[in-house]
């Protein structure tokens, strides 16, 4: 029986101010029990809040450290990719390919710029390999098609053709057909384009 029930049961005694000694004792015991229960609840609640706050703080520190580490890695790779030296840019592509498991929008955008504008064939070929780590990224896929439309270096053309075939990118068929029908296309590029076209049509 809680305090409220006790008071209701002895309502007449309260109203008539004729509480017996026994009732007074019982009332005092109930009151102390209720007060003790409230205090205990407050202590447990405060401890719970303190523990929860500590957990949030710990996770915040962990996430902050992870973000800081990723930011440092991203800045380092970007410095390599934007270097004037083709060797440094190539090293940056390899670093990204080896160290990054998840997509990094800044690095991917830089890699796409390299794919379209870099004058070094080896850097471009390595860039295509790095971009293939993210086959579900539609931006990567569409940019590979655009790059193939504008690319003039046979080795890079072949690399992109094989990549689009690997991705089963059917939207590349029109571009492949143009390459096949272009009289200026190198025979080895044309044969790779024909093979890719047949694979995509299967």
3D structure, described in words:
This protein has 10 helices and no strands. With 202 residues, it is an all-alpha fold. α3 runs parallel beside α5 (105-117) and α6 (121-131) packs parallel to α8. The protein is elongated and about 115 Å long.
Rounded mean pLDDT is 80
Task: Tell me, briefly, the overall form.
Answer: elongated
Helix content: over 70%
Order of helices and strands: HHHHHHHHHH
Layout: helices, strands, pairs:
Elements (H helix, E strand, L loop, with lengths): L2 H7 L1 H5 L5 H61 L4 H14 L5 H13 L3 H11 L6 H13 L3 H13 L6 H9 L5 H15 L1
List keywords for this structure.
elongated; 0% strand; 202 residues; mainly alpha
Short description:
The protein has 202 residues and is an all-alpha fold. It is built from ten helices and no strands. The protein is elongated, with a radius of gyration of 36 Å.
